[in-house]
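Repro case for the chain-ordering regression, as requested:
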Amino acid sequence: MNRLPASIREDFARARRLEWQTLFWMSTVVAAMFFTMGGSQAMRSALIEDVLSLVPAVTFLIAARFEPQDPTEKYPFGFVRVNSLAFLVAAVALTAVGGFLMYESAMTLIMAEHPTVAPVEVFGHTVWLGWLMIAALGWSVVVPMWLGRIKLPVAERLRDKVLHTDALMQKADWQTGLAGIVGILGIYFGYWWADSAAALFIAFSILRDGLSNMGIAAAELLDGAPRELDSSNISAEAQRLQARLEELWPQGEVRLRESGRYIVGTIEGVHPPADLPKLDDLMGDDPAWRLARLSFSPPEALRREDVG
Amino acid sequence: MGIKGNAFLRPAGTIASAAILIAALAACAELPRDPDGTTERVRRTHEIVLGDIAGAPRSPEAERVLDRVAARLGARVTRTEGHGEELLNRLEKGKVDLVYGHFAEASPWAGKVHFGSPLGWRTDVGKEEHVPRFAFRNGENGWIALVEGEAR
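-- result from build under test --
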């Protein structure tokens, strides 16, 4: 059974299609980079970044398979948070690889290893491999920029962190490509260090993505307040809901947390009201599907503040 | 600040100026440039120092390539014979410009030095097969391009 709210099903299906397209188009980029890589450290880092950029897409597709399923005996609260878990795993991987690549390019720089980019034969013509590298890097800029741009609005409508991070990382991929191109042009003009310096910059951007994603994933796994998609600030939607709930039940304590793409609310110290306002009224102008659960716990109920 | 102030930073303008700059630089230098200036040194000293690995059979193709490179740079070839490891070590340090020998693509030295393409008409060479090739110092991309260009 598909448990997704009807109002987001269409966008959800679109997001899945977009992520399959991402896997296809990014594979062409990875292949282009792989065949032209040669001895450039910057190309190596950029290739690894492009392979890693498949991870959020795969994460999203796996989570999208689980999320609409019914709760089971072993998972009575269903699977809406599968993507938070997958996201954390992806973020840790990103951080580790970023750290490793930084070490590697720093060592290449310190050991003063000179990158070799030799001519190759293409259809009977001899071409300096660097030009092919630059073409591959150019392709690695165009594809993700275009994909990122279409995915961003869908991610915002779905309140999907994985998709949003994926779109943002891709939108920022032009920096990686450009750094790679600068590195190769550096080799062309005889500056051997330009290549490892570009690799270092790319590794740093991977590490930075990984660390910020770890922060986003941790906020949700620790039952944090609902966050904005693009920052660690509490989301405006949640703040408006909090204000409305506090106005309705001023004697209670309102606590909101995030569960996957949904908001879960608890009002403590209040008996469940006989006539609950309609969901649409509670959410005001914000999309009603976001509030997935609202529970009341009476003053005499067993509870601890620090255990959700 | 108005649009005018940022006009120079507009992508199209930046790309165009970068292209002009690159074209201008390319016009006045031999490119790709060697970070350690092998090609320039050969031109200046009129001498190509060739490491000849002892026992490696001479290949007519290699001789032809050397003649053409020497003629192009107005230099002559000075041969220095030695053992494989010794010569490749000297190549890595920049004491030799070029080493001729029979090398496999999967040589343990691959990565420390750059092995050129197999000399001669054969193109289907296995990774483990020892065939006549030149070995170059890593990163001397202009020098590699010049010699490899004459080999084709």
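Ordering looks correct now. Chain A touches chain B through 19 residues (CB under 8 Å).
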